[in-house]
Write a structure and sequence with these properties.
By secondary structure, the chain is α+β, with helices and mostly antiparallel strands. It contains four helices and four strands. Strands 1-2-4-3 form a four-stranded antiparallel sheet, with no helix packed on it. Helix 1 packs antiparallel against helix 2, helix 1 packs parallel to helix 3 and helix 2 packs antiparallel against helix 3. The protein is globular. About 8% of the residues have low confidence.
Length: 211
């Protein structure tokens, strides 16, 4: 599920120093009660809309989301590219470092292919990746991603992905957030599907296709 800034939210400049107390209370209750990530994000949006989140409130929301999802356990460097008109295709590879549940660290590589919609143009990308996956295999399989990018020459992209049916050792939904730079001519705010496997997946698939 890991395709091509690692942050779940980007906050606007604060308009107040104190966030609405009742919404903050609801946010804390939702984390403790095990609400879904989407519900926690809705409360985060409400917090911003009701008064403009202060820097401290933004930090609290981020920490609440990280706490809920189990924290960042995988970081990586990805390279890839893609393009299309309306519907686009992409492929990428990531070199990742994962902290296992026993505290040990492992180095691994993943490969991913996918499609996204809508998009126009094409680019090559280099991204940083962060995820709550605590085993490289957590990133394998089907995923849904949401992203945005813009480039005319040098540009930037950011996005987040969720593995379909994927959970880490704590039983939390596996996510992977990414962001980086790209070179090309492209503009998109898209939703996409991807499939991720271990290193060599794309080469093996091509070999099977022509065997």
């Amino acid at each position: 599920m890991c395709g091509t800034g690692p942050s779940l939210y980007m906050f606007a400049s604060p308009s107040t120093d104190v966030a609405p107390e009742n919404t903050e209370s609801k946010l804390n209750d939702s984390v403790n009660d095990g609400e879904t990530v989407a519900e926690i994000q809705d409360l985060a949006d409400e917090l911003i809309d009701n008064g403009g989140a202060s820097n401290m409130a933004a930090k609290e929301i981020y920490e609440a989301l990280v706490k809920y999802t189990g924290g960042v356990k995988t970081v990586g460097l990805c390279a890839g590219g893609g393009g299309g008109f309306v519907v686009g295709g992409n492929a990428s590879t990531c070199l990742i470092v994962t902290q296992l549940p026993n505290g040990e660290f492992v180095l691994d590589r993943t490969e991913s292919v996918g499609v996204d919609f809508p998009t126009i143009g094409g680019s090559a990308e280099i991204n940083l990746l962060a995820s709550n996956a605590d085993n490289p295999s957590n990133l394998h399989g089907h995923g849904i991603d949401f992203g945005a990018s813009a480039a005319w020459g040098v540009g930037a992209n950011v996005g987040i992905e969720f593995g379909y049916g994927a959970e880490n050792s704590k039983g939390k939904q596996v996510w992977a957030a990414y962001g980086g730079i790209q070179y090309g001519a492209e503009a998109e705010i898209s939703i996409g599907y991807n499939f991720t496997g271990g290193g060599g997946m794309i080469k093996d698939a091509i070999g099977d296709l022509f065997s």
